[in-house]
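[SOLVED] Need 3D model of a six-part complex

Original post:
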Amino acid sequence: MLSGIVRSALMNNRRWLPAHAALRAMSSTGPTSPYTTLSVTRPAQSITQVELYRPEKRNAMNTAFWSEMVDCFNEIAADPHCRVVVFCGAGKIFTAGIDLMDMASNILQPEGDDTARISWNLRKKISKYQETFSVLEKSPKPVVVAVHGACIGGGVDLITACDIRLCTQDAWFQVKEVDIGLAADVGTLQRLPKVIGSRSLVNELALTGRKMYADEAKSSGLVSRVFADREAMMAAALEMAGEIAARSPVAVQGTKINLLYARDHSVPEALDYMATWNMSMLQTQDLMKSAQAAMEKKSPKTITFSKL
Amino acid sequence: MLSGIVRSALMNNRRWLPAHAALRAMSSTGPTSPYTTLSVTRPAQSITQVELYRPEKRNAMNTAFWSEMVDCFNEIAADPHCRVVVFCGAGKIFTAGIDLMDMASNILQPEGDDTARISWNLRKKISKYQETFSVLEKSPKPVVVAVHGACIGGGVDLITACDIRLCTQDAWFQVKEVDIGLAADVGTLQRLPKVIGSRSLVNELALTGRKMYADEAKSSGLVSRVFADREAMMAAALEMAGEIAARSPVAVQGTKINLLYARDHSVPEALDYMATWNMSMLQTQDLMKSAQAAMEKKSPKTITFSKL
Amino acid sequence: MLSGIVRSALMNNRRWLPAHAALRAMSSTGPTSPYTTLSVTRPAQSITQVELYRPEKRNAMNTAFWSEMVDCFNEIAADPHCRVVVFCGAGKIFTAGIDLMDMASNILQPEGDDTARISWNLRKKISKYQETFSVLEKSPKPVVVAVHGACIGGGVDLITACDIRLCTQDAWFQVKEVDIGLAADVGTLQRLPKVIGSRSLVNELALTGRKMYADEAKSSGLVSRVFADREAMMAAALEMAGEIAARSPVAVQGTKINLLYARDHSVPEALDYMATWNMSMLQTQDLMKSAQAAMEKKSPKTITFSKL
Amino acid sequence: MLSGIVRSALMNNRRWLPAHAALRAMSSTGPTSPYTTLSVTRPAQSITQVELYRPEKRNAMNTAFWSEMVDCFNEIAADPHCRVVVFCGAGKIFTAGIDLMDMASNILQPEGDDTARISWNLRKKISKYQETFSVLEKSPKPVVVAVHGACIGGGVDLITACDIRLCTQDAWFQVKEVDIGLAADVGTLQRLPKVIGSRSLVNELALTGRKMYADEAKSSGLVSRVFADREAMMAAALEMAGEIAARSPVAVQGTKINLLYARDHSVPEALDYMATWNMSMLQTQDLMKSAQAAMEKKSPKTITFSKL
Amino acid sequence: MLSGIVRSALMNNRRWLPAHAALRAMSSTGPTSPYTTLSVTRPAQSITQVELYRPEKRNAMNTAFWSEMVDCFNEIAADPHCRVVVFCGAGKIFTAGIDLMDMASNILQPEGDDTARISWNLRKKISKYQETFSVLEKSPKPVVVAVHGACIGGGVDLITACDIRLCTQDAWFQVKEVDIGLAADVGTLQRLPKVIGSRSLVNELALTGRKMYADEAKSSGLVSRVFADREAMMAAALEMAGEIAARSPVAVQGTKINLLYARDHSVPEALDYMATWNMSMLQTQDLMKSAQAAMEKKSPKTITFSKL
Amino acid sequence: MLSGIVRSALMNNRRWLPAHAALRAMSSTGPTSPYTTLSVTRPAQSITQVELYRPEKRNAMNTAFWSEMVDCFNEIAADPHCRVVVFCGAGKIFTAGIDLMDMASNILQPEGDDTARISWNLRKKISKYQETFSVLEKSPKPVVVAVHGACIGGGVDLITACDIRLCTQDAWFQVKEVDIGLAADVGTLQRLPKVIGSRSLVNELALTGRKMYADEAKSSGLVSRVFADREAMMAAALEMAGEIAARSPVAVQGTKINLLYARDHSVPEALDYMATWNMSMLQTQDLMKSAQAAMEKKSPKTITFSKL
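Solution:
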């Protein structure tokens, strides 16, 4: 009988393994092929875990990272077996931000025959780097990000493009770009003011480059929960992801899409879009299944939803 | 002489009673004709109190509710004797949200000869249900909402469309829609992120359906004050309403209209609208009356303003 | 040798003194020519301090104030020697707001042959008064505002147009306009909801005119830091200004401009603008200088940036 | 056998007669109950004809007109038997515009205790009058307007809110409002620039009040066709309406809704909305029916579509 | 008695002469002090004529021109005696566009210590040059522009910011910027597509720099009237200006402001603004005066309106 | 010596051949590898010609077409040797529009376990098909489209996304979608109203599906030039493309990008973006080269610009 369960589990595993990337189950011991900077695993059904995986380099963002993120999250967006993502960093800290050594030539030695052409090429590059974090939003699967230790520079750009932010008590955050002579151009200046409630604080962080610690991150709303250590945080992140994964993917992904739409539109515009969205999405079997379970006081985890 | 005062008061009372709805004074013992789900009273001059009144059904939102709200607040908008609204729930909790039993057929069995036509009809219904809460904003009279006990699902849609939110220490809030298989489509996803300061928290609530208690509601800014119990809260709500009602209705209602305009526009757009609004509104006698009272250190309550 | 240093310092001083305004160094003992309501000093290199200076009138905003602010900040915007502004109030409180006595005729006795023409003139006046605070945003130099004691009416309009807000423990804030019969029309209704995280609180303040004290100002995010007294606050404000002034002006001013752009646009729009902005701004020598200092663990204060 | 056909026709007629308004078939000899200014008929299946019907007053827009339009087009929007509207004027001209005699008190003697309150009431009135023409857009049924003779003042506001404009060779158009001392406030200034291609012409018409004749109306794009006389125009209008009525109402009404959405949004915004709209609307049987007919080279008129 | 009339006329003249610029009446024989590139005259009551006046340089736009335009139109905006502007060019052609010789150093040799600082300074310059034409829109007085001969480069930027465009049969237009290696950055690319009806034509003109002659300018809607020669055009321009000047300035200027608002907003937004605008502007005596004259079939020219 | 020139030309040719697609020079005899529906050639230096190449199927748009277009124009966008595109159709007509036979299963038999999931998949498909034409805009190289014979359905979606439209005297255009039961969802409803000047005509075409012939296409502004036959049109298209290719690519591509930006934004927004764009782009050597050539009355064709 045991072997039957195992076999079934394996088949299940096989079924939810995306075709084009090798996902390693349950543990992360290094980057996952085809990635050199990311480790992608499936810690539980319907949950994909993405880990920044250059611990020896403090997860600094090198040239490979910027394009691997796009590939990784495009794949996640298309993967019907993934309903939610947990994003974290391997090693001692979440990320040291941009890998200046590796990236310097990209930024400091731009190509082009004159200033206009250098500008033209720089704009293409900036747009491409922006896409690295925008894919987190473009994928309709919610992303729970779990930050421990330092989250510096590009790390802040990254986490503000995630949906739910958690951190450990020892975490700190730093909008570092101003210290190296540039206005942060891959998302922080655009998203940070829309995810926390104090504009004075946003300006202080962005203009002075000072560190913000876990307590202030919590009271300002940057993170919604703080944990004693990485282990506790990861357990909570996976539990939260489990809650999300247990709910109707039609409901969950429609919620993410409409929350992002609402951020960028007026309330009347967003209500109109919502009605136009739900005129079809309410015609899902998930609604009947969920409503019935709710009335019967059953957990959503007991329901089987079709893939989306 | 006393009788003269009484008579005059009665006549005054009569004068500020709206023509088309019977308002019962000072106590709420059940729905007010012509409503079956709302109790409408006038606890003090210029203050209208609207109470969800299906206590035996935990103030669940049934079919009647959705249209009664529209009638009720359209009437309030047109009633020159009302300057501010206090909104609350009768019985043990604020509201259990949508009355699934009563509403199921509306949502689960939509009409139409094919998917397009079902969608067409669903869109009309969603838009109509959205209007149930949008009337709270379209009426220029500020709405102070006082929440005790549970505020679930549609209840969150409702309170985010109010202007000022108060709650009791035992209150809790739940974005329930994701649990029954749909993206919240009557206002929560559109308004919640614009009334509280932590986007991470908004996403957590909307994607997991977890409860949020009074303390977090206060620290996140959903409510601006928490009270020990319903009695203390209602006393404070009425006092606050009294403060608002005592001020110039030209100032108060212009403030509400322009605060909502500002929410949905850029700062320069909103400044332009404000200037265009006030070019006439500054030509009110209320300004002179108020300025004079302010200089004489008199309370606004001593001033008599013309009806608006 | 000492004399050489002094001479050089004096020459430096002379060099960074703007041509068209007399800046008094290090102390503020009264309004600075050509101003009657503002004192403008240079407490440290690259830092301009602007002080409301009618202490005997509780820094009330009289007719002169509204235009002096525009002149002052236009000059600051054009002054290459200023990289950051500290804004504060002289005397016992920050400001009592509008000087009703002085301004009454402007507002209460508008000119014009009929209502339309009076409205026309009022609109021009309101737009002009709005400009008084909008110049704080239009100048690309960050403004750190330090509030002690009372900040009333127009004071709230003023500080919400600044970038970073600090206050003392004894500070309080009051949206006073509703008390004198008008909707606040020079910025508070437009900016306050975008700088703090609780809309319920914004509405409460704007509709009731109640005072908000330092603790609530901090927890709501209106200010990002609270200090024991004015002295401690001013020291911290100058230190913070020093941090900002030490960083690349290309980075700092580009950050301010793009943060304001992001406030008024969707995230995708703001990202596009950012990329178009930085395609030239990344071609600054400041980037190389700053990156090198960062790698060498040197303070930004050791770097000399070209004027901007 | 003939009687059978007649009976069937009558029954058909009965079926498409809306419940709440008496529609007279095939001829228009006066206003239709409950209207005093409009004649509503059904000249052919699925086509509703609305006629301005105060010929003895040159179809001037009196007090009744402004609310009857709203009732009429709300009814049309809800009437499943109407798929397209032909709008025209009875008598010698299309319309002389506002009935100044009848409306003067509304505009020239507004109520209110002070300027602010008069303004408040005027704003409500203007908004209400704007709604009179906006209903033409809010109804998803396309409106073909046929203009003969004069189309003055409010007439231009009206026709610019219609979808397709036709006129006779003797027609002329006049933005009259500037002649009576006001900026046109019920639609012309907002819609005229968006329906014709020359902004110089729009400004000329609106600022000088000069007449524009049929040829210029055609060359500027205000109308898309000009006819020799009213008879020829009405025949063509009905034929065009017949073409529209023969097509899938899902396609036709979705087209109108998305064309209006595109007018008020950027191309990327409008494309997104369109995709969200059609994700359900493509699931209509009409698509299969229409595609099959198209492949079989059959006229759309041979297809029976479900009501919408 | 005649002398009395003359004296009174002179005094009237004197009264409507703006304080800070010497306007020469009825003829234009050269630039008007304090301008070196513009001739400003008053050809008839309430009409200001502005003439490009460097005929020997084909009215090329030199350094002085860009700031004189701003001064000139700010003055016009504030001048209560001006109700409408006629804009034209002295000499053989309307304008040859930018004076490359005079302007070259501004554009080709920008200042700044590095690319970022050069960019910073260039942006300020471009914004300043854009303002040169935007003042035409910011002044609420309508501008009728009359073009003869060539209208090249900056000339197209200029005329697209005017309200009504007229030209002679020999006029031609050329978007010249692409020929000298830059994207037109002072208005043409932004305004031209919004003033003519063919986007294909706009693109053709802007991308190839080809000339467009009067016939195509008329058929595309760039101009609304074409005249045989300059004399006929100027007579018509002044007659048209006379028609505009004869109408209520409240109506005329409110029309211009709302037409421009409508260009840049959705129809519902623009309707809302219009209602908020007219709630005060309808309270003008001009309405009664105009309505009465209209009913009495009198010309607007017989009415005396208060200054605005 | 001649052979030297030839060899050099060949080498030049080789140099501007993109690495990843085989371009056949000067003639188009069939689809170009890797495409099966498009023929891509280089008729002259810096000009890429893209031809719909399924003449035996009347260039109907089959499954392959929708993705080949994206690949093709992404490649064009990245190809520094291409400065302008000429787009046309092989065979008897431009295109018959969608290939219903080939595409039917995509649209008529969408996949998904319930209506919500079918909708989800349809939305992804529609978005993907929209991208097929949006790439024409996203590539900064201008596209001149030359239409002969019929341009039906998807053909109209395609050409409205091009920059300049030309046609032959025998061309006709048809918004066909309404005939097959759907609202046109890949661009026509969004772009057609923004490229022609008569909204009445747009609505007529979209709601009735009637044909529009060359004359009306010209007078309405859809095309800016009409030619006697395909040969004359192609010669003119290539000449026009030659004019564009001869000008500074910095100027040309910046013009296209800013014209599209202006379409989707208000004038002040677009001016701000333009200034921010040109602050770097004016620092091009092209400006000096072009200005010099212009002053020397030399053709732009004599200038050599660096690649972009």
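Edit: The first helix of chain D runs from residue 2 to 16.
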